[in-house]
């Protein structure tokens, strides 16, 4: 019977209960890693916020310029409408162009 214990068999098979974990435990310093990753994410989000705010300033400036141009052109549009020249006719010669007939 002494030979039975020396040979590998069913008694050497490891089960889930007998296998120990080899990874680091939750309390063995993973708190530092979590804090480091949170700090990195915070820095990334702050940089992203700064970029978005700068972009918003550019957009607001452009909208302000467009509204100023629109406000200034409104007076031009009203003066054209008051003169009765809303639409030019096709045969109007005042535009500097003339038409010619082409024979094929």
Describe this structure in words.
By secondary structure, the chain is mainly alpha-helical. The chain contains 2 helices and no strands. Helix content is 56%, strand content 0%.
Features:
104 residues, mainly alpha, 2 helices, 56% helix, 0% strand, elongated
Strand content: under 5%
Shape descriptor = elongated
Mean pLDDT, nearest integer?
Answer: 76
Described by strand count, sense and barrel closure, the largest sheet is: none
Low-confidence blocks of residues: none
- Number of contiguous helices: 2
For the CA atoms, what is the radius of gyration? Answer: 41 Å
Q: Give the ordered list of helices and strands.
A: HH
Distance between the termini: 117 Å
Structural class: mainly alpha
- Number of β-strand runs: 0
Helix content: 55-70%
Task: Set out the fold topology.
Elements: H1 2-6, H2 30-82
Q: Summarize this, please?
A:
The chain has 104 residues and is mainly α.
